[in-house]
Amino acid sequence: MNTKNQPISGNDLARFSGPGTFMRLPAANDLKGLDVAVLGIPMDIGTSWRSGTRFGPKEVRSQSAMLRPYNLATGAAPFDSLQVADIGDLAINTFSLSESLRIISESYGAILNYDAMPLAIGGDHSMTLPILRAMAKRHGPMALVHVDAHADVNDHMFGERETHGSFLRRAFEEELVIPKKTYQVGLRGTGYGADDFTEAAGWGFQQFPAHELWGRSLASLGAEIRRDIGDAPVYITYDIDSLDPAFAPGTGTPEIGGLTTPQALELVRALKGLNIVGGDLVEVSPPYDLSGNTALTGANILFEMLCVLPGVAYR
Length: 315
Known about the structure:
Low-confidence stretches: none
Number of helices: 9
Order of helices and strands: EHEHEHEHEHEHEHEHEHE
CATH topology: Arginase, Chain A
CATH class: Alpha Beta
Shape: globular
Distance between the termini: 16 Å
Strand order of the largest sheet: 3-1-4-9-8-5-6-7
Number of domains: 1
Largest sheet: 8 strands, parallel
Number of strands: 10
Mean pLDDT: 95
């Protein structure tokens, strides 16, 4: 008999009711015995254009009620082999970005005292920097799969050095990531100059601009990334603005010409076999998509991440 936590079935309780947890999984205060801890980081004080990602975790959880526990395309049944629970939201300081980043780093330090792999729902992308700081203390420098319209390697924004557009430069400077095993997928848009992306490429980052990916499957790219990373610990950070606004309009810094949802699924599914130690889904801004489709897409991408974690069962 399977004693792992299971999402509440829509045949047992209508999907528009029940707990407001991710996929209507059990809520947990104690991380002991968990394989995966889903958490929310409801903040948008690190953004520079449209706010609203503070509502991201709640809306992604709400839309995730539609998801079922078995992946029909891949055969993955993550809840058959992994103990997963929703541990709620971090209590960030909504008036202070620097204080919030400190809270995130310290909270992750406490989470990582257990064996639970953290899977975060954002929140703006500035949250990934303190996550990487905490993760690197346990795992050392990590490989990074960064799916995003933006390189996020600004030196500063309005004089601030820790923001959603500068987190990866800080991570590089602090040696939290392995430069030659850092992959940026979906980069695009207008820029301030020709070196907006090239500087990071000079650090060793491997970049795959969106316009080079138009009309092609990303399964082979994902397989290439998987082979290059090997057995190194890897963190996945997925910015929803990597998708074209036609698929995900509810985000803070939209850019046209982005990835499609099938490409997103192909890429994540191709990462199966990696030593994934953590992940996040960021920049869902529900006020800019009242249909809920952006949050629904984000919830599905998180489920796909669950489906490629080490130890997942397949039927």
